[in-house]
Amino acid sequence: VADLEADLQDVSRHLAIVEDPGLPARVSAALAAEPHGARPIRRHRRAILAAAAVAIVGTGWTAAPALAEWWRTRVGGIEIRRTPDRPPATSPPSADLGAALGLGRRTTLAELRAAGGLGLRKLSGRDPSQVWVGDVDGIRVVSLVYEPTATSPATVSGVGVLLQQFASPMAAPALMMKGAGPGTRVEDVSVRGARGVWLEGGHGIVLRADGDALFAPARLAANTLAWEVDGVTYRLESALDQEAALGLARSIR
Amino acid sequence: VERARDGDPRACELLVERHQRAALRIAYAVAGSDADDVVQEAFVKALRNLHRFRSDGQFRPWLLRIVANEASNARRSAGRRRALALRTTPQSDVTVGSPEDDAVLAERRGTVVAALATLPERDRLVIAYRWFADLSETEIAAAMQCRPGTVKSRLSRAHARLRAALPPGYTTSTLTAVEEERSG
User: Fold this and answer.
1) Residue A190 belongs to what H/E stretch?
2) Residue B89: pLDDT band by 50, 70, 90 thresholds?
3) How far apart are the first and last CA of chain A?
4) Three-class SS state of A136
5) Between the CA of residue A224 and those of A114, A129, A161, A221, what are the distances in Å?
6) Residues of chain A with pLDDT under 70
7) Structural contact between residues A104 and A164, judged by C-beta atoms closer than 8 angstroms
8) In this complex, do B80 and A24 lie within 8 Å of one another by their Cβ atoms?
9) CB atoms B12 and A9 under 8 Å
10) Considering only CB atoms, which chain B residues are within 8 Å of A22?
11) pLDDT tens digits, residue range B28-66?
12) Is A121 in contact with A144 (CB distance < 8 Å)?
């Protein structure tokens, strides 16, 4: 062990990196240009208008690094990127919803409450038909599945509403990545004063699987409203339009 | 940190100056050649979110955690399948020996750093916290948000994987031999 440690110390002394004396001034300038509290979202919105020119291949986030970089935004633990690709095809509604949507294992509200931690929220006046809990990179993701009703028709996955919630500390990398293709509208919204994003039209979604950024297979997601309140990210997926989805989001307790 | 939180630009610059070296090293171990951009972005993000830093906490681990996550995201954006390229240079702040010794050591460094580049990100990160940023176990625990005991086991696992990633021809005696020769 001592030899390996000596080697690592030696490597450390010779790493091919050079400190940049201009960095403090550049950071200072960047802070002054966009002071704390300013929302960088407008820059993103301008970029959306030009996003048609982006060319990314594959699943949308692996290739063409320079281009993939130039439009993305983030709400809590969810990162959204522009991609010219159509969303991935999805399997038809499956009996095994957990596997199809990557929700983890089946549980109950009582069990979740007993486990404590994240303050659980659900749609006002409605109990979910299924409760799931998953672990994505060490973070517990709770998924509440609501049956389709007359007012909330089934999505492509066969659910009425999927409400997901997970803790999203500021420093943590995004847990979910969404690729917004040409058919997807992306809009900034506000949910009771909290910043959110509305994605209308199918889009791809992948879950971060571990610290080395391995991903579960992408799936197709329906209209989604994502927002963050007090370090908790909420994601509401449904076939509803924006107004109805915002109404539901405002009603969660 | 308090002054920077109150928006004092000079205090912000001082924080960057003071922590740039460690930040660059962590970013480099995670994201390779993208480290410069990563570090700038991470500093901006950290300073803009200073209100979320607990005053009783340690600043460096908090900052380096942001750097590591920014680096991880950058690497993912750049295409996670691309092999990580880490390099060492002949320049050194330690006394150099004979040209032969230096050649042996340089080759050895190349072997170690190439093996390091093949490790999973989590292993590279804990090794970088310990050896490249010189964090204590307590500081690593704060940066990785785990218990100090967990740091020990993660570091030991990372060392074992690094050892396993070294080529069969790698022996642990060369460096020791050269150093002994120097000190003798």
Assistant:
1) strand A185-191
2) confident
3) 54
4) strand
5) 29, 20, 10, 8
6) 1-2, 34-72, 82-95, 117-118, 137, 170-173, 175, 177, 179-182, 203-220
7) no
8) no
9) no
10) none
11) 999 888 888 899 999 998 998 887 787 677 899 999 999
12) no
Extract the tokens encoding A4: 């390996």
Number of inter-chain CB pairs under 8 A, A vs B: 151
State the Cα–Cα distance between residues B65 and B70, nearest whole angstrom. Answer: 9
Between residues 55 and 94 of chain B, which touch chain A (CB distance below 8 Å)?
Answer: 62, 65-66, 69, 72-73, 75-81, 86-94
A228 by DSSP, 3-state: which?
strand
H/E element holding A194?
A: strand A194-200
Q: Which residue has the tokens 């109150």?
A: B6
User: Token pair for residue B104?
Assistant: 């042996």
Instruction: Provide the 8-state DSSP code for B34.
Output: G
Q: Are B158 and B123 contacting, i.e. CB atoms less than 8 angstroms apart? A: yes
What is d(CA B138, CA B9) in angstroms, rounded to the nearest whole number?
30
Closest residue on chain A to B133 (Cα): A12
- Using a CB-CB cut-off of 8 Å, the residues of chain A touching B21 are 19
Contact check, Cβ <8 Å, B12/A12: no
CB contact under 8 A, A31 and B87: no
A42 within 8 A of B59, measured Cβ to Cβ? no
How far is it, in rounded angstroms, from Cα A231 to Cα A20? Answer: 33
Between B70 and A222, whose confidence is greater?
B70
Report the pLDDT value the prediction gives residue B136, as an integer from 0 to 100. Answer: 94
pTM exceeding 0.80: no
Two structure tokens written together for B78: 């750049």
- Residue A104: HSE in the Cβ half-sphere, 13 Å Cα cutoff: 22
Q: Is residue B20 less than 8 Å (CB to CB) from chain A?
A: yes
Beta partners for residue A106, in sequence order: A132
Whole-angstrom Cα distance, residue A175 to residue A78?
6
Q: Which residue has the tokens 């692996």?
A: A62
ipTM: 0.86
pLDDT at A173: 64
The pLDDT, as a whole number, for residue B25 is: 93
Q: Is B54 part of the contact surface with chain A (CB cutoff 8 Å)?
A: no
Rounded to 5 degrees, what are φ and ψ at B83? -65, 140
Element (H, E) at B62: helix B59-77
